[in-house]
Amino acid sequence: MDNPATIAPVQNDCETETSSAWSWWPSWRPTSMSLLKTTESKILACIQNDLWARFVTLQNQYRIWTLTITNKAVRKPVEQVPKTPLVMVHGFGGGVGLWIRNLDALSRSRPVYAFDLLGFGRSSRPPFPSDAAEAEEQFVDSIEQWRQSVGLENMILLGHSLGGYLATSYAIQYPSRVSHLILVDPWGFPERPKVQNQQGQGTDVVKRPSPPRWVKAILAVVTLFNPLAVIRAAGPLGPGLVNRFRPDFKRKFEDLFDDDTMTQYIYHCNAQTPSGEVGFRAMTESLGWAKRPMLDRVRQLPASMPVTLLYGAQSWVDSSSGYKMAQIRNHSNTRVLLINEASHHVYADQPGEFNRVVENICKSVN
């Protein structure tokens, strides 16, 4: 099968910003940016529509790995106003390859952009500040610089998990650029709950649906190390570790790949020099709660901005935050939808329903 993807030649495919602080990591990890590129190329070969994949250079010279998917088979009248593009932002530890079940379907009637967040996937991996607000700002500023470099006037902005948190922060700072905000199982919205102890003082407790094993494993080390340190520390055992803790990823995509392509992709995305995860750690307090909960700031979104929150009905992320956001916004232009038989990775668990819902949202814009 011919692959329509156009991959721009890259002179320095292993671009990372290496810190000597991490020089002690085992050099025998079976990973490289080249292996990540090879694994990702196998995933992107499934795309049927026209694909343009390239690095977008920001004003600060960092590079953001970017996909643009269009359906040139659809002939549009010259006088028709172009459809607002959909921009998709992945979650923690992810990358553009995870959208493989969605890119073709969602690009049938409008351009779709997906990019690796700064510090993740194939994008540049710069140092991040240890302050939560500054780390968040570095992520958000990179998204705005990316938008300027690509030349988008406005967009339908969709973010999953950490991507949902950053998409909301971006929409607060740059509301004129967001036609509709779609938040998919967003991380970091609620405050860490407190209860009164016998002395009447507030004590931190955690009341949430029990996370799966892989989430518990990350939370167990996040306060001591960077969240994905265990994958790198495992050396040649790292790929097997990902298979053990994330067998669900193989199952979610088993009709596309009958091997370990997707778990290999997850491994290679996360076994590189730590960068974005350093920023995430700075934004996180113990047990994975956000230091700066987003529910405290959603009032800053314009009341006129439409917001849709999509949750997996079986997700470990509590959908009550979505209803609280709707209440805070006086239910103005805010909808909360649950997708049945879907967990945290809604887009992969129920891609047909996810694509249908997102397509309808896009049609409501234009």
Automatic annotation (TrEMBL):
It comes from the Eukaryota. GO terms for molecular function: lysophosphatidic acid acyltransferase activity; phosphatidylcholine lysophospholipase activity. GO terms for cellular component: lipid droplet; mitochondrion. Keywords: Hydrolase, Lipid degradation, Lipid metabolism. It catalyses: N-hexadecanoyl-1,2-di-(9Z-octadecenoyl)-sn-glycero-3-phosphoethanolamine + H2O = N-hexadecanoyl-1-(9Z-octadecenoyl)-sn-glycero-3-phosphoethanolamine + (9Z)-octadecenoate + H(+); N-hexadecanoyl-1-(9Z-octadecenoyl)-sn-glycero-3-phosphoethanolamine + H2O = N-hexadecanoyl-sn-glycero-3-phosphoethanolamine + (9Z)-octadecenoate + H(+); N-(5Z,8Z,11Z,14Z-eicosatetraenoyl)-1-(9Z-octadecenoyl)-sn-glycero-3-phosphoethanolamine + H2O = N-(5Z,8Z,11Z,14Z-eicosatetraenoyl)-sn-glycero-3-phosphoethanolamine + (9Z)-octadecenoate + H(+); 1-octadecanoyl-2-(9Z-octadecenoyl)-sn-glycero-3-phospho-(N-hexadecanoyl)-serine + H2O = 1-octadecanoyl-2-hydroxy-sn-glycero-3-phospho-(N-hexadecanoyl)-serine + (9Z)-octadecenoate + H(+). The keyword Ligase does not apply. Pfam families: Abhydrolase_1 (PF00561). The keyword Iron-sulfur does not apply. Residues 85-349 form the AB hydrolase-1 domain. GO terms for biological process: lipid catabolic process; lipid homeostasis; phosphatidic acid biosynthetic process. Lysophospholipase selective for N-acyl phosphatidylethanolamine (NAPE). Contributes to the biosynthesis of N-acyl ethanolamines, including the endocannabinoid anandamide by hydrolyzing the sn-1 and sn-2 acyl chains from N-acyl phosphatidylethanolamine (NAPE) generating glycerophospho-N-acyl ethanolamine (GP-NAE), an intermediate for N-acyl ethanolamine biosynthesis. Hydrolyzes substrates bearing saturated, monounsaturated, polyunsaturated N-acyl chains. Belongs to the peptidase S33 family. ABHD4/ABHD5 subfamily. This is (Lyso)-N-acylphosphatidylethanolamine lipase. It comes from Pundamilia nyererei.
